From TrEMBL:
Signal is among the record's keywords: yes
Protein name: GDSL esterase/lipase
GO MF term list: hydrolase activity, acting on ester bonds
Signal peptide positions (record): 1-22
Family annotation (SUPFAM superfamilies): SGNH hydrolase
Family (UniProt): Belongs to the 'GDSL' lipolytic enzyme family.
Keywords: Signal
Length: 347
């Protein structure tokens, strides 16, 4: 199953009522300034890809309206950088925009390179290569000392893992022949650790890791399993167990590398919104806004009718959350990282 990118309509996003901030952005910006948080650098899948896949020869894209803003856009805006976090491969990206942060994410990718390779998108290893190109451009623009300061004080965000299970392990035959589900989870964690260690060697010191969403609460997986009204417990168990191991691995990396780390419990937030939508201001948690809401996503949403009030829906399509749900996730990240001061890094 594919997860895809969004296209941003800036004017539309600015006018949308759900773009107003639930958290007070002034303290967030004061915190960012006090802690010398220089920018946001993002790695991951469609949950954080603002358009890198648009230039790839892949069907894993949604470069048509009205796909909207991501959680990383709201985080960047709250911290005072940009209303939209650009894709590094965006042909319209200007070199003078680089110091404010970019996303290297590629929809449909995962911790396992095979997840990306079967659909011709960017594996994490390639995203890191582009990050190295980013560093070169930054040094040319600002000089080595200032460029290194920006990298070491950037907030690195890593968000992926869903496709490793739904697009790879549960569909493609290769990995199940090699690994039991438990061993595959451990394999993913080893790959993640190696990638983060490479990021650390390249200057990463502040890391936000987003957990895997409740796989059994996605409208498409519920429809496939014939459980439109309830989440699929077996799939949620897979996500929950992986997230528990992910959290422990982040703790291990923090101790080993001296990273400042934060974990985002997106599983808990989305599951809670699906089960109790009114608590978050939603009315519909079982289906998406596009088409029937249970099967369409990505290119199959093109030209389909949509609901008139997407801010009442947890999901935009049969796979991806709405802007409002991403905004809720962003607020949680902002509150988490600003609870304790982080210090400017020079080493």
């Amino acid at each position: 199953m594919e997860l895809m990118v969004k296209v941003v309509l800036l004017a539309l996003a600015i006018m949308m009522p759900w773009c107003s901030f639930a958290v007070d952005i002034q303290p967030a910006r004061q915190w960012a300034a006090k802690s010398n948080v220089s920018c946001i650098l993002v790695f991951g899948d469609s949950s954080v890809d603002p358009g890198n896949n648009n230039v790839l020869r892949t069907s894993m894209k949604s470069n048509f309206p009205p796909y909207g803003r991501l959680a990383t856009d709201f985080i960047a805006e709250a911290l005072g950088y940009r209303q939209m976090l650009p894709a590094f491969l965006d042909p319209n990206l200007k070199v003078e925009d680089l110091p404010y942060g970019v996303s290297f994410a590629s929809a449909a990718t995962g911790f396992d390179d095979y997840t990306a390779n079967v659909v011709n998108v960017l594996p994490v290893s390639k995203q890191i290569q582009y990050f190295m190109h980013y560093k070169i451009h930054l040094r040319k623009l600002l000089g080595e000392e200032r460029a290194e300061f920006i990298i070491r004080n950037a907030l690195f965000i890593v968000s992926m893992g869903t496709n490793d299970f739904l697009q790879n392990y549960f569909i493609e035959p290769a990995r199940p022949k090699q690994f039991s589900l438990l061993k595959f989870q451990n394999f993913l964690l080893r790959r993640m650790s190696k990638d983060i260690e490479v990021m650390h060697r390249l200057g990463a010191r502040r890391l936000v890791v987003v957990g895997v969403i409740p796989l059994g609460c996605i409208p498409l997986t519920k429809a496939i399993m014939g459980q439109n009204d309830t989440c699929v417990a077996s799939l949620n168990k897979v996500a929950s167990s992986f997230n528990a191991k992910l959290l422990q691995q982040i703790s291990n990396l923090k101790a080993k590398l001296g990273l400042q780390t934060y974990y985002v419990d997106v599983y808990g937030m989305i599951q809670s919104a699906v089960m109790n939508p009114k608590k978050y201001g939603f009315e519909e948690g079982s289906k998406g806004c596009c088409g029937s809401g249970i099967y369409e996503y990505g290119d199959t949403c093109r030209g389909m009718s949509t609901c008139s009030e997407p801010d009442k829906y947890v999901f935009w399509d049969a796979v991806h959350p709405t802007q409002k749900m991403y905004k809720i996730i962003a607020d949680d990240v902002i509150e988490s990282v600003t609870k304790e001061p982080i210090h400017s890094t020079t080493n």
